[in-house]
């Protein structure tokens, strides 16, 4: 099977690309290698596939309409894992137009490419941030996602709605996955665990928002990759019992599905920091801060729907996941552990 993976130099995209190659799929990767964070990290992720003839990187921007049309026409993939996007809640406050370009225009170009080349299944990244102001936990796909509290979340909600329109109009099977705080080796430097680790090894205090009163459904990268690939293999189909009089929001009479992909075991932020402190063997000075705009105090995923659909069962506890991250981090940056 030929799979187009967008964001192939990214944290999740590179891991998905390696897993697809490991099982024998041909992977056509897309990435613009932008400088949102250090490009060297992206290139080092790609280097893990540099000698693999079954992986090809196409360096282009998904927001470039002509480039993406030409790419689809030449590659003609069987299925797509669309992970390229401008991520980050806080960055969206100061840089809104970047999110419109990548997450809206870029996603439309992906949908059009799927339509024009009759792609058999589109799996795309959504986010737990779409739950926004909702405080009922665990978050379930039956809940409303109509009140986002960041532009990033709003663009991802828009992706789900756009995908449904193409599923309805053109019969394009679409599966959206709402990721919950994915972490692990090779993760993005703008994410909390990575930022904490860099400051701790530098002997600097870490900023802990909402004075530490936060809970997150931290989800280890290997569990997420397994869920993505299982979802890719199960092509979205119409829900036979779906009723427009009582619509279930995560399915449809069209071939459209949306699932949470989390760990299902939320962890207090302070425990997460404690585990990191233990693994690094260094003291942590905490600088307690108020809540940041666009952030939420807690996330927790109901993963029952994805478990029923594809057998998804995340099994990596935070202690194991953080230890593996620290092993990678200290090796990658040459940090001496005590």
Strands, helices and their partners?
Elements: E1 2-6, H1 11-22, E2 26-30, H2 39-47, E3 55-58, H3 65-75, E4 79-82, H4 91-94, H5 96-117, E5 121-127, H6 151-170, E6 174-179, E7 182-183, H7 192-201, E8 206-208, E9 215-216, E10 219-220, H8 221-233, E11 256-261, E12 267-268, H9 269-280, E13 286-288, H10 304-310, H11 318-332
Parallel strand pairs: 1-2, 1-4, 2-3, 4-5, 5-6, 6-11, 7-10, 8-13
Antiparallel strand pairs: 9-12
Can you describe this structure?
The protein is globular, with a radius of gyration of 19 Å. Strand 1, helix 1 and strand 2 (26-30) form a beta-alpha-beta unit. 46% of the residues are buried. Helix 1 (11-22) crosses helix 8. Helix content is 40%, strand content 15%. The protein contains eleven helices and 13 strands. The chain has 338 residues and is of the alpha/beta class. The chain has helices at 11-22, 39-47, 65-75, 91-94, 96-117, 151-170, 192-201, 221-233, 269-280, 304-310, 318-332; strands at residues 2-6, 26-30, 55-58, 79-82, 121-127, 174-179, 182-183, 206-208, 215-216, 219-220, 256-261, 267-268, 286-288. A seven-stranded parallel sheet has the order 3-2-1-4-5-6-11, sandwiched between helices. Strands 7-10 form a two-stranded parallel sheet.
